[in-house]
Amino acid sequence: MARGALGMTEPKGRGLGWLEPALEVLSRRYFGRVAADADWGVECWMRATGAALAERLGPALAEACAVAGVSVPKQCRAVLAVARLENERRTEEQEQELAELGPAFQEAGIRPILFKGLALARYYPARAARETGDVDLLVAPEELCGAEEVLRAAGYEHWAGGGGLSASYAVTFGRYGDHGEEQTVDLHPAWHEVAVGAAGIEVAVGESREPVAAGDVAGTRWNLLPPSVELYLTAAHAVLHGNRTLSVYLDLAVQLAAAGESTVAATTQLARFQGRDRHLKHALTAAAELFGLDLDPGHVTTLRRLGVPVGVRLGYAGAGFRLVPSSLVMELALRRGLRRKLAFLRWVVGHRGAAAVKANGRHSVGRLRRAVRGFRWLKGRVLRYRVLGSVPLRP
Questions:
Q1: Which residue did the predictor score with more confidence, 113 or 166?
Q2: What is the distance in angstroms between the CA of the first residue and the CA of the last residue of the chain?
Q3: pLDDT for residue 379 is more than 90
Q4: Which residues contact 52 (CB under 8 A, 6 or more apart)?
Q5: pLDDT tens, 14-30?
Q6: Which whole-number Å values give the CA distances from 338 to 101, 167, 192, 345, in the listed order?
Q7: For a disulfide at 49, which of 58, 76, 334, 387, Cβ 3.0-4.6 Å?
Q8: CA pair distance 353, 134, nearest whole angstrom
Q9: In what order do the strands lie in the sheet with 194-196?
Q10: What is the per-residue pLDDT for 393?
Q11: H/E segment holding residue 239
Q12: Residue 224: in which H helix or E strand, if any?
């Protein structure tokens, strides 16, 4: 990355007061930032630990503190250690899932693309530092049925999605592990503009085509998104995902730190062609500010140039509250082109959800009623941080 636009020097410059100690340590561990001359007390660390857990940064913070030799209060250290150990357990379970499913898909002649999750975890310098979730697979529409057969043979059942929506929305399959834990796999026919191209050997982003990448994940060879598309998709996740915790921006930051200028340039081209240039700038600028990265001036948002703090831009309201607007509101605000905005509005409003899909077999739901129900996607959410030791965080 080119240097010089967003170097962070003051620990109080981000406007996310509760998280300042956590962001400083993460910046030091993952991006080589010089340690700030700040004396974080017990109360600061109690707040920072609770906020990091809410933002899904707990395992990364635990790993960063251990490697950087940062001394934290005993209670915080214990809670972070639990978060890291729990994530290691979930990561191991998911690695076992992938090791089982990879050969099964290969034998069936199906080549899904692994994205998000453990695909992004490979950018982190330590195993299980990234908080894991579901297994997400991008599958060519004509291979969805075959992929479902592979999952059912492995003991998975259909849990959500499908029906008439399966051409646009993820279909979720799940099973229970040996210890009763949920294991879920989402089959995506597309993720907004990103889809698997012909014969599974290329990725389509709108009209653009890129060859599929590949790599070893969990000891198994998987198809992966090419770096430029992966960066594009992670930036999209920072706007289009409903639960946009700051962990999404850490994902983006570790990718950005690893990306060469050619990758960033290719991502910028994709964003411009899809009307997501403002969208990409928002995500890159926020990630760079949060974690002390330097960013090329051409990727800096106007709001940043005007001096609007990143905390304000990310909805931090102070007192441990962060207001997360809906994906629909973010898309309508940042996406260029009226036709694109209206197309996305129709796409989201038409998404009835899993419960409605199941009910559709019994009752016909009118188009107007579906549209009215669809406007619930305008609703955002409030992310509330908790002081460590408060009732919601006690064992």
A1: 113
A2: 43
A3: no
A4: 19, 22, 58, 61, 80
A5: 678 899 999 999 999 99
A6: 42, 24, 17, 10
A7: 76
A8: 18
A9: 194-196, 202-205, 208-211
A10: 44
A11: helix 227-240
A12: strand 220-224
For residue range 135-187, list pLDDT tens digits in order: 999 999 889 999 999 999 999 999 988 655 556 678 999 999 887 889 999 99
Compute the mean pLDDT over every residue in the chain, rounded to the nearest whole number. Answer: 86
Token digits of residue 279 = 């969208």
Amino acid identity, position 375: F
Report pLDDT for 395. Answer: 35
Which of 203, 190, 339, 224 is closest to 274 using CA atoms? Answer: 339
Residue 303 has which token pair?
């709001």
pTM for the complete prediction? 0.89
Tokens at 282, concatenated: 């928002």
Please report, for residues 291, 295, 384, the alpha-carbon distance to residue 254 in angstroms, rounded to integers and kept in the order given: 9, 13, 25
Q: Are 131 and 248 in contact (CB under 8 A)?
A: no
Cα dihedral 96, 89, 113, 142 sign = positive
* Residue 206 buriedness (CB in 10 A; 0-12 / 13-18 / 19+): middle
Concatenated DSSP letters for 293-325? ----GGG--HHHHTT--HHHHTTEEETTEEEE-
Measure CA 313 to chain center: 18
> What separation in angstroms does the CA of 13 have from each of 7, 43, 64, 153?
11, 20, 21, 53
Side chain identity at 190, as an amino acid letter?
A
Nearest Cα residue to 259 out of 289, 294, 290: 294
Instruction: At 382, give phi and psi (nearest 5°).
Output: -115, 125
Q: How far apart are CA 204 and CA 182, in angstroms?
A: 32
Question: Any idea what DSSP says for residue 366?
Answer: P
pLDDT above 60 for 203: yes
**Token match 């049925």: residue?**
145
| 49 confidence band (pLDDT: 50, 70, 90) | very high
Rounded-to-integer distance, Cα 344 and Cα 346, Å: 5
